[in-house]
Write a structure and sequence with these properties.
Length: 146
């Protein structure tokens, strides 16, 4: 089940960050984020276990997908798709007209997911990622309608 992230989820989400990202966000950053007026965090919870989480920033009529993480053993089960739906729906409910995101150029599974939601690559950030060094594709979905 997908729902808004709460402080009780922080420990599991911080652990999920370490499992999913070579450049992970700290517990303190996550804690600050769930209290930010600009950020919306969702978790996919099954029982007491967090299978995935995501973060959407809303600012000045635009959204930015900052994070989406799914436990490796739970990938390709629709968790990421449901989290994308939650973020896009939240953006539209907040009258956002465009959403952007950055993705590793080599992350074909994520790129396919984003493309299925109408995102298209518009630019490249050279050397954006480290561990390993890699370019980021900047993808946009423009013209959102509530």
């Amino acid at each position: 089940m997908i729902r808004r992230m709460e402080p009780c989820h922080l420990e599991q989400v911080a652990w999920l960050e370490q499992v999913c990202f070579s450049e992970n966000w700290s517990y303190q950053l996550l804690e600050a984020g769930i209290h930010s007026p600009f950020d919306v965090y969702f978790v996919w919870e099954q029982g007491e276990r967090i299978l995935g989480y995501c973060c959407l920033r809303l600012l000045a009529g635009e959204g930015e997908i900052q994070r989406i993480a799914v436990l490796p053993e739970c990938r390709r089960l629709g968790v990421g798709r449901k989290m994308m739906e939650a973020m896009v729906n939240d953006a539209m409910a907040n009258q956002v007209h465009a959403i952007s995101l950055e993705v590793r150029e080599s992350n074909l599974a994520a790129r396919k997911l984003y493309e299925s939601f109408g995102f298209a690559a518009e630019a490249v950030r050279k050397g954006y990622y480290h561990n390993p060094l890699e370019d980021a594709l900047i993808m946009w979905r423009r013209g959102l309608q509530p």
